[in-house]
Amino acid sequence: MKEIPLQAEVKAPKKFKVSSLTKTRKRSDYLWAYLMIAPTMLGLIIFYLWPIIQTFYFSFTEWGAFGQYEWTGLDNYKRMLEDTNLLKSFKNTGIYIIFTVPIGIFLSILVAVLLNQKIKGKSVYRTLYFLPVITMPAAIAMVWKWLYNSDYGLLNYLLSLIGIKGPQWVSDPKIALYSIIVVAIWSGIGYNMVIFLSGLQGIPKMYYEAAEIDGAGPIRVFFKITLPLLSPVIFFVSIMSLIGAFQVFDLIFMMIGKSSTALESTQSIVYLFYQYAFVLNDKGYAAAIAVLLLIVILIITVIQMVLQKKWVHYD
Amino acid sequence: MMKKWLIMLLTVVLGLLGLAGCSDSDKASGDAKDGKVEITYGFWDKKQVSAIEEIIKLFNEKYPNIKVKTELTPYGQYFQKLETAATGGALPDVLWMNGAHVVQYAEGKVILPLSDMAKKDNYSLDNYSKSLIDLYTVDGKVYGIPKDYDTTGLWYNKKIFDDAGVPYPDDTWDWNKLKEVAKQLTNKEKGIWGYAALMGNQGGYYDFIWQNGGHIISKDGKSVGFDQPEAIEALKYNISFIKEGLSPTQAQMTETAASELFSSGKVAMMFDGPWMVPEYKNNPDLNVAVVPKGKKRAVAIHGLSNVIAANTKHKDAAWKFVQFLGSKEAADVYAKTGTVIPAYNGTQDAWKEAVPDLNLQAFIDGAEYSVPLPSVKNTGEIWQYETDILKKAWSEEVSVEDAVKELTKKANESLSK
Question: For residues B340 and B356, is the Cβ–Cβ distance under 8 A?
Answer without folding.
Answer: no
